[in-house]
Amino acid sequence: MQAGKPVLYSYFRSSCSWRVRIALALKGIDYETVPINLIKDGGQQFSEEFQTLNPMKQVPALKIDGLTIGQSLAIIEYLEETRPTPRLLPQDPKKRASVRMISDLITSGIQPLQNLSVLKQVGQENQLPWAQKAISSGFNALEQILQSTAGKYCVGDEVSMADLCLAPQVANAERFKVDLTPYPTINNINKRLLALEAFQVSHPCRQPDTPAEMRN
Amino acid sequence: MQAGKPVLYSYFRSSCSWRVRIALALKGIDYETVPINLIKDGGQQFSEEFQTLNPMKQVPALKIDGLTIGQSLAIIEYLEETRPTPRLLPQDPKKRASVRMISDLITSGIQPLQNLSVLKQVGQENQLPWAQKAISSGFNALEQILQSTAGKYCVGDEVSMADLCLAPQVANAERFKVDLTPYPTINNINKRLLALEAFQVSHPCRQPDTPAEMRN
């Protein structure tokens, strides 16, 4: 049941969507984007049509091979298993463990605490300090871990799933004005990643739904 | 560098620790428990010794094969890759995608929003409604997803990583007095899981650090 091009339900500024866009770009998978605007009309992710597709009412979701998958890491692991080149997980199980630990640290330990729906709940005036605390306490741990795992990238010298989580999280940190000075390892890896084509074409500032004033 | 028995840093009531304890039990891996009391002494996870081990200051962490891994799913995936029997991920990539999607939905979409450190931040009087909202909104999505993936368990008729996430999350739901009536599929799967030996021996009420009054 191969049903043509994969379709990615995405929002330009969603860090979770960006993770998947990088994976698709690195693996050279051609796909269509259906933009889901998380702000407009009270949030298009709440539409009945989208909820049928992803009951979590979150982006990203990927329609591929007759299947719809939600959750960015589940999508990336599926792409890795079905389109293994280039690899986003190292061959050595211990290095794979490091990649997954770093990925999970970001996707479970940082991002959920500073996403749109949580920030709505904490109230306008608390949003910035709340997000900053979540990100800096995660980055404190991450900086320490990377000191023993990193080479050019998060784990050794090959781009991995961990890097697909790192760059979008640093972009969020910048949006929330987190001081990155205490995190030189994170900062340097991020710079190297942003120089790669797959990170550039998938960047929030270059998506079909990026507003004109945010493009570059 | 096989260095004797694996060591699990665990807290009896931590749902993330319980996920890993179930994996260890199912795979018949003998291990030692080092209890980390998340409440006592202001939280033993904040000790310098533990932070060196897991900079995220969270349980679980598993020392195994000369490696220390944090993040429950990274641990479970490592166990699956190095001790594949019995399998906790199906062979079919599409079913694996469902298992990972459900696991990530719980571990990124529900648990982080109702964990101890977040609840401390929202303040005593808001804790219960905050946790209930996080769990019920996640369970609404999960109930809908399970209707197309579940057999006896979360995905088909074999216990998988998704089930290792489900039972501990239902236990949290009960602690936070979430009404489970709207979630018959979740409820039924959970009952089947709790009847299995691996879920019983790993249960929060039977750990070395379970206080006497909570044992049974």
TrEMBL record, chains A, B:
This protein's record includes keyword Nucleotide-binding: no
Domain GST N-terminal: 4-87
InterPro entries cross-referenced by the UniProt entry: Glutathione-S-Trfase_C-like (IPR010987), Glutathione-S-Trfase_C_sf (IPR036282), Glutathione_S-Trfase (IPR040079), Glutathione_S-Trfase_N (IPR004045), GST_C (IPR004046), GST_Zeta (IPR005955), GST_Zeta_C (IPR034330), GST_Zeta_N (IPR034333)
PROSITE patterns the UniProt entry points to: GLUTAREDOXIN_2, GST_CTER, GST_NTER
Coiled coil: none
Obligatory cofactor(s): glutathione
GO terms (BP aspect): glutathione metabolic process; L-phenylalanine catabolic process; L-tyrosine catabolic process
Function: Probable bifunctional enzyme showing minimal glutathione-conjugating activity with ethacrynic acid and 7-chloro-4-nitrobenz-2-oxa-1, 3-diazole and maleylacetoacetate isomerase activity. Also has low glutathione peroxidase activity with t-butyl and cumene hydroperoxides. Is able to catalyze the glutathione dependent oxygenation of dichloroacetic acid to glyoxylic acid.
Record protein name field: Maleylacetoacetate isomerase
Taxonomic classification: Eukaryota, Metazoa, Chordata, Craniata, Vertebrata
